[in-house]
Structures are given as C-alpha cells and as structure tokens.
Amino acid sequence: MTEINFHHGAADPLAHACRLLTKAYQRGARVAVTASSSERLAQLDVMLWTYDPLAFVPHARLRAGAAPAERLAPTPIWLLDRAADAPHHEVLVNLGPEVPAGFESFERLFEIVGKDDEERRAGRQRWRYFESRGYEIRPHEVRG
C-alpha cells in the first residue's frame, strides 16, 4: 500500500517542493511531480534551476500524452501533467488540489499543502479521501 505523507503549513509550497526534491535527488530517489496546472509546473521548473545557486537538481518536463525522450529516461525527477505518465513509480509529489489519479501505483506519495485557506481546504479533502480508504497518513508540519 502506498505510504502517504502530508507536508502541511508550507508558506511557499514551491520552495518547499524544491527542498524536498533536492533531498530526494541527493538520496538517489526517482520522483514524479504533479500540480494543478501547467503554469505551476513551469514555475517549479524555473525554481529548481534558480532557488539555490549551489544546488543541481536534474529534472525533465513531460506534458500530458507525450512519451519521454529516450535520452531523458535516466532523469531522476519528472514534472508531469498526469501521474499516470510517470516513467517510474517510486515517489510522487502532489502540488495540486486533487488526489492525483494513479497515486496508488507509487511506493510513496507526498502531499504539499500551503497555508492559504483554499489549499488547506483541498488538503483536508484529500486527507479524508485517503483516510476513508484505509491509508495510514504521516503528517509533517512545515516550519518556516
């Protein structure tokens, strides 16, 4: 069963995602990232190159329905419109307001929930969804 982790209270969910993805890369994890919109993934793409001038987080962007380029297959982090398009199923990070379709095919899911009311409301709905289906949820309060 997929391990569910909720990182809640993030002042800047994209900056938190950058820190989380940096750690994941340093530990050798393969990660798929989904979001509520292509624009949010584009913002994350830029932030992964700029948020820390000393960090290198190799990643690729895959739009819905496109096949990953063979030369990019070894890339450890994928920014995806749909989790179902992931080239691997180790870790999924969700930056969107809805439960990502196909999350159950991943070993681990990280939900990142911001501080604003709309994100918190959507996060509570996702929490209830997972809880109602018998998933054990590991909460992590984001500080700072």
UniProtKB/TrEMBL annotation:
Keyword Transferase included in the entry's annotation: yes
A GO term, aspect molecular function: DNA-directed DNA polymerase activity
Biological processes annotated in GO: DNA replication; positive regulation of DNA-templated DNA replication initiation
Lineage top rank: taxon: Bacteria
InterPro entries: DNA_pol3_chi, PolIII_chi_sf
Catalytic class of the enzyme: transferase
E.C. no: 2.7.7.7
Pfam family of the protein (one): DNA_pol3_chi
Keyword terms of this UniProt record: Nucleotidyltransferase, Transferase
Keyword Metal-binding in annotation: no
Positions in coiled-coil regions: none
Protein name as catalogued: DNA polymerase III, chi subunit
Species of the source: Methylibium petroleiphilum (strain ATCC BAA-1232 / LMG 22953 / PM1)
